[in-house]
Design goal:
403 residues; eight-stranded parallel β-sheet; eight-stranded mixed β-sheet; 2 domains; Urease, subunit C, domain 1; TIM Barrel; alpha/beta
Length: 403
């Protein structure tokens, strides 16, 4: 039995409240009530830092020079460790459109990595972003791989692993509704992405199980004219359909301040998750080149102005953000209250993805925790009760009875 660990002198962010001079406890990887007596307990003095539930990133392709489509254990472990440094305690490894062989290799590498993951964010399952997308909304997706849903292709993929948690697709494509039905039967979150769908199509798609929108505003239809008549698109559907949840890339580049504020005000923190959509360039400095997707078949991109761009600079190629940057963007640029910004990184993505064992600071939930200083930079990350990152410089006065 592991000793109970008590975090004391913390500003605990719990729901809509910040509890001053508060304490939190965990034991055997899970949160427990704070004991009345501290004899025999390990103590972490937070020195008045913020402590909140760990950040959950439902959409990331990699980081630290790694992409999950590299198909190696090292890529998964390296990206998970990189993102843990910035507060991510849970992430869904995401694959762009590629070959069947690359996808299956990714599944195998993922399983191997999960058996050895002791120093990074937890990876409970996989997100496939493609290949069932509208060519007109391809964005940084490689157009060579885009196609319409075919059960002879997607059913073998669904049957290849029980860890496929999410699949993004364009709901207007031929075969999209049977595809969504198959996802729903297997408990896979079906998300609308890279889509030219009309509002009416989105409504029909929802009845087949599409329930989430992938990176709102990026690569999707909005108000357009057909024979002089205006028609609403996917963007408007996000605002009008209360049963749809959304995610936004809140790196301060993909969406400007007014759009971030519109999403917060009219969709709200209970339906909005913050995601990085980060590629292997996350953690790299401006001016460097990188590859989107696999090293073999991926596309060259440029890291510039805090974002990854296609070489012609006509489209973004995923972000280089980390989750702490999303938090600061929402608080400092979009002027969102801290508690709501935290909710969009914790409770809301947990509920969207049905990860009910995490996302809030309730007894019995996973001990996934993040310490933040006054500038909202991460000083410590705890995953399942184990410290996987701590900043020696920023918490030099903290007691370190590491468990």
């Amino acid at each position: 039995m592991a000793a109970t660990t008590i975090i004391k002198n913390a500003r605990i962010i719990r729901g809509d409240q910040i509890e001053e001079h508060a304490s939190l406890a965990f034991e055997n990887r899970y949160l427990v009530p704070v004991p009345e007596h501290t004899e025999g307990c390990d103590i972490i003095d937070a020195h008045n830092q913020y402590v909140c539930a760990g950040f959950i990133d439902l959409h990331t392709h990699g980081g630290g020079g790694y992409d999950f489509l590299d198909g190696t254990k090292e890529a998964f472990l390296g990206a998970a460790a990189l993102h843990a440094k910035y507060g991510t305690t849970t992430l869904l490894p995401t694959a762009t459109s590629g070959t069947y062989e690359e996808t299956v290799a990714m599944f195998e590498a993922y399983e191997d990595a999960c058996r050895h993951n002791t120093a990074g964010a937890d990876m409970p399952g996989i997100h496939l972003e493609g290949p069932y997308f509208a060519p007109s909304q391809a964005g940084a997706q490689d157009p060579r791989y885009l196609k319409t849903p075919n059960p002879n292709e997607y059913l073998p993929i669904m049957n290849a692993t029980d860890k496929l948690l999410r699949w993004s697709a364009a709901c207007e494509l031929d075969g999209a509704y049977p595809f969504a039905d198959a996802c729903r039967e297997r408990g896979i979150l079906c998300a609308i992405g890279h889509s030219d769908a009309s509002f009416e199509c989105v409504l029909e798609a929802m009845s087949h199980g599409f329930s989430h929108i992938t990176h709102l505003y990026s690569c999707m239809s909005t108000v357009h004219r057909i024979q002089a008549y205006r028609h609403a698109g996917v963007v408007e559907s996000a605002y009008l359909c209360d049963d749809l949840t959304v995610e936004i890339i809140a790196d301060g580049v993909h969406l400007p301040k007014p759009l971030l504020q519109m999403v917060y005000r009219f969709i709200g923190p209970n339906r909005t998750a913050l995601v990085t959509d980060s590629m292997r360039g996350a953690g790299l400095a401006d001016g460097q080149e990188s590859i989107l997707g696999s090293l073999t078949n991926g596309q060259r991109v440029i890291i510039e102005d805090g974002v990854a761009k296609m070489p012609d600079r006509k489209a973004f190629a995923g972000s280089v953000a980390t989750t702490d940057r999303l938090l600061r963007t929402m608080v400092e640029i979009a002027e969102v209250p801290l508690c709501d910004a935290i909710k969009m990184l914790t409770e809301t993505p947990a509920r969207i993805q049905k990860l009910y064992d995490r996302g809030t600071l309730e007894t019995g939930k996973r001990a996934d925790l993040v310490f933040l200083d006054d500038t909202l930079h991460v000083t410590r990350t705890i995953v399942g009760g184990s410290t996987v990152f701590s900043s020696e410089e920023k918490i030099s006065g903290m007691e370190r009875k590491i468990f």
